[in-house]
Amino acid sequence: MDFTFTPEEEAFRKEVAAFLEKEVPQEYREKRLTFFDMSAQHDWIQVHRAMAEKLGAKGWLSRHWPREYGGQDASPFYRLILREELSRYHSPGYDSIGAGIVAPALLLKGSEEQKKQHLPGIASGKVIWCETLSEPGHGSDLASIEVFAREDADCFTINGQKIWTTNGHFADWNALVVRTDREVTPKYRGLTFFLVDMKTPGITVNPVINIAGHHEFNEVFFDDVRVPKENIVGGLNKGFYVVMSLLDYERTSDTAYAVAGTYLEDLAEYARDNNLLNPIMVNRLAQLRADCEVARLLHYRVTWMQSRGTVPNYESAMSKMYGFELLQRVSEFGMELLGQYSQLTGESARVPMYGRIPSCYLRSFGHSLEQGTSEIDRDVIAQRGLGLPRLR
Amino acid sequence: MDFALNEQQEMMQTLARDFLTGEYTDKVLRAMAGDEKGYTPELWKKLAEMNLLGLSIPEDYGGIGDFLDLIVVLEEMGRACFISPFFSTVVLGASSIIETGSDEQKQKFLPGISEGKTIITLALAEELAKYTPDAIQTKATQQGGDFVISGVKLFVTDAHVSDYLICAAMTGEAENPRERISLFIVDINTPGVSCKSLKTISGDKQAEVTFDNVKVSGDNVLGEIDKGWPYAQKILQKANVARCAEMVGLAQQALNITRDYAKERIAFGHPIGAFQSVQHRCADMLIDIDGSRFATYQAAWRINKGLPAAREVAIAKAWVSQACRRVMNSAHQVHGAIGFTEDHILHYYTKKARASEFSFGGVDYHLEQLSTHS
Ligand SMILES: Cc1cc2nc3c(=O)[nH]c(=O)nc-3n(C[C@H](O)[C@H](O)[C@H](O)COP(=O)(O)OP(=O)(O)OC[C@H]3O[C@@H](n4cnc5c(N)ncnc54)[C@H](O)[C@@H]3O)c2cc1C
Fold it and tell me: What fold is seen in the domain B230-373?
């Protein structure tokens, strides 16, 4: 047993920290933006891209990949350390879709040509991805999606509407799942996974504004969009298996506990400076600190399994769900700590912490929905983790 | 024991519900949430015509009904997520004058309120955002028969559309802060009064009001000098219960739309409402709403009867606030991503509930009050 990082990992953390100390724009650090309210920043997309390229140039986005694809065969703890430091320094630049889930899915299921074509762009931070699974009528029940791709000589032609595509308004490429067989049962055997260039004619992206007033996700319309057959990952009608491994990576990619921990310490500092720490708040703060520590351990366990070459099962659903719900609780704590002031937004001098309190709070309603809802996560934990029987 | 509404209350409920369902559509709600004034004069006139602005005002002064009738109507306003200066004027303004005013003052202000000619609000909280007498630092200094008020008030709802402000200020030197507060009614156009709007997440319109050497005559004192705090407490009791009634309505409507959605949204071949994890959530929402309603009505009933109600008010505000929070969280969860969008109506309810929860003291404050009453 060992609950420490190796000296090399510690050294890497220091190197990342020193780099971010220099590179993160002053405004981002001053406002202490979290990963989840950065998108409200007027220049976020440019800063995100610029930082991604800097992280890419350092080789940090791909350090844990195999050498033959530009990595250093490093342990996945390097990715975790990078993401913890990015949270701590309030830095954009990590494409949690491209680097976080598309790359590992491609490494596992992509063809040699696909790996050669797409991994360098992700490693360099120059190509940003989005993922498009959900539809207006089907979210949790992904196997029922309806947007259809018709086979057409050397390509597939896609028609229909998708929704909730995070970063779809500026992504270069899209990991898309659609139906290619309408007759087959069970329905999940009729899905295919495509890599789609967002510049392909026929794609229209419209903003959907969330309840925090941020533009993060979009609806995406496909109107006779032609995608070459080489862009299928994992085989025709075998998309569901790619998605399942993608979702497993998705559940381990984001370090919500780190975002929660950083935000909690920001709140603690504000509370201390403004004499808000009455005994009730001290108690709540301590409880949340304990929760953050446990969330960190749940996530480290998953990363440790990955570092051993074990594929995490229910463990990743547990870590993701606990981390994201914790972030909701920390955001709620911010509201209670600031009381009536917590509703203030805008530029007034009375607004605490640059208006982050209500922004984080409202954004947090999405945390128990995105990347699979808490209900679905609990199903996974109960069924895969405990072997309980399933009804459906 | 009787948990039912009486005939008059049922009538008020139907009147308010029919009116709001017809007039206060989602479209109007969206417009009013973004509107600077937050109401239209036409709507205000209709409220006056239906006598709703006279609720809980004694008949001698042009009013109708009692505090419980008002609470019934406020629950309906919550259901509609009704944004307007109704709460400020009828709950805060009228209650203050009913509690403290002389016959002359009542004659002067109350008929105007019920006729829809006067909008009034309460300027109590200051920088500490606390609802205790020690938090009031605004000073009113006597100069002959006049008073000169200076200080800054925060979270004043609807100040920007009000004709009058009821301002709590320090008049005495007493060590005990409860013995040095007086209430004044101030015409908003008096020189030295200025408002700056505070942007919030909810559609409620709040402001920072500065009193810079504002001179008012002795006739503007409500109640007795230095004895304003016990009145303020009574007003705060009513205000808190009224906020609870709003939250009950908001939560009820959130549950209604959630139940409807759970019946129609299909996943895995079933309406999501057939999944037990969704059902249990909805069941908990119903428990929270029934509990909230009874806690609210018990406190309101006591106030209406003139019985001591401090304990029941504290219980209601602390409990309803938390229950309403749970209900809103569940409503969002059951709606999935669609409820997370600005286009969906749900977030207006969530945000207004937060504003109601925090005004006149949050959960911790009311639990603290409760511990001193048990
Ligand atoms: C911030 C955010 C970002 C997102 N980004 C993306 C993205 O980039 N790409 C993308 O494709 N999608 C994205 N999504 C969509 C997300 O994956 C879906 O919202 C999620 O899968 C739920 O689907 P739904 O919203 O359609 O809700 P539904 O599936 O309709 O679910 C509604 C409710 O029913 C519950 N429910 C459903 N089935 C069951 C069951 N079997 N048992 C118990 N309860 C059940 C759900 O838990 C939920 O509470 C995003 C969503 C959010 C909020």
Answer: Butyryl-CoA Dehydrogenase, subunit A; domain 3 (1.20.140)
